[in-house]
Amino acid sequence: MAGRGQFVRPAFWNVGAGPEKLYSIAHAEEVVAEWLEQTPDQPAYAEERQRILALRQILRNSGPDPSEADLQSAKLGIKGFVRFALLREGRRHAARSSQRATLRP
């Protein structure tokens, strides 16, 4: 998948229903926009939304012809968000499992 700001190596994503990997800054911008459309603007998701909005800003700041520093910044932003999102999802899953276990007779 070619696009503005092609990564030498794809960035791991695999968040929610999104793709497994991101191939460029342009691809990352598309995926971030989709994530924002699909994720409710509710208090439970406030921190995730705040972090992905920060990632979107990093991606936008890279400009039409991203430098190597812009590419690195984008990949670090993606990596940080992915770590946060996976940790958050793991906590939600653990809470649901715990809740189900306490509801069983």
What does this structure look like?
With 105 residues, the protein is mainly alpha-helical. It has one domain. It has 3 helices and 2 strands, in the order E-E-H-H-H. A two-stranded antiparallel sheet has the order 1-2.
Spell out the blueprint of helices and strands.
Elements: E1 6-12, E2 21-24, H1 25-38, H2 46-61, H3 68-103
Antiparallel strand pairs: 1-2
Short description, anyone?
The chain is mainly alpha-helical and 105 residues long.
Number of domains: 1
Average the pLDDT over all residues and give the rounded result: 88
Which ranges are low-confidence, i.e. pLDDT below 50, for 5 or more consecutive residues?
A: none
Shape: elongated
Q: What proportion strand?
A: 5-15%
